[in-house]
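ingest -> validate -> predict -> emit
validate: passed (alphabet ok, no gaps, 103 aa)
predict: started
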Amino acid sequence: KMTKIDNSKSYDIDINLRISQSNGYDIEFCWNGQEYELVADTSFWEQRDSITGFINNIAKQYAGEVIIGESQKIGFQPIKYQQNEDGSNTVVLQRWNEKKSLM
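emit:
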């Protein structure tokens, strides 16, 4: 738990994920009931990517996980997940036709 102060009002928020940084100013993700919020002091950002790039990478990874998860529900299996040089991701799925012959 963390106490957040916003316009002179304070309230507790749950920290669901924390990414430690060497300077002690961690990156945190908090669930607000509808979506995750990124909580970080931009003055102390120590990640390789900008904040926008960081969020875009998370969104890309999440999209790939959703595609794989939903595809598995209808019988597909992931056989390859690749990050390309241009930053895009390639997901290769397969599904075998298991219909049995009537002979």
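Confidence is low (pLDDT under 50) at residues 1-5.
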